[in-house]
Amino acid sequence: MIARLAGKFVSFQISAGIIKEGDYNIYQYGYTMLVEIALNLVVSVCLGIWLRQIKSIIFFFFIFLPLRSYCGGYHANKAWKCVLLSNAVAFGVVEAAKSGALDPVPQWVKYLGAVSCSIIILCFSPADNENRKLGERERKVYRTYATVVLVFEILLEHVLLFTGNIDFYYIVLLSHAVQAIFLICASVKRPVFDG
Length: 195
What we know:
Elements: H1 2-15, H2 24-51, H3 54-71, H4 79-99, H5 107-124, H6 136-162, H7 166-188
């Protein structure tokens, strides 16, 4: 439905001479993604307010979205599945961080997991999307940006750990784990969450 509405909007812009007909697919994909991201954010903020975890939800998206944007990974085949999965992930990460689910895990295991996720992210990104294939130049640019974002987040992760902000530290760790899983799912090209 969102893709159809985006398509109608793009067709209107083409007929008005605002964009070129050859750019139809790019604009339709862009508008569809914009609406889906906005919808996800609205639902997530409402979820954060309801759970009284608005700071944690916002922090999750501050960490997750930049890396996800440049790494790519698994994408749901329907907008409603995307909204459902994104918010389930946000809720799961925030609740796991808040509840201290990682507290019993030895720090060396957390460190090993963080390193493993970082290696997976670096090796598997950027992943193509069926709606948007990356050219060689784009692939290099996205890989560079993904690396810069990942390095920044790893540094932030250490600052959070050493300053005692354990909930936010866990959000970074778990966000990287989710991104690594999404990249693996995309690489095996199996519709793991699609029915």
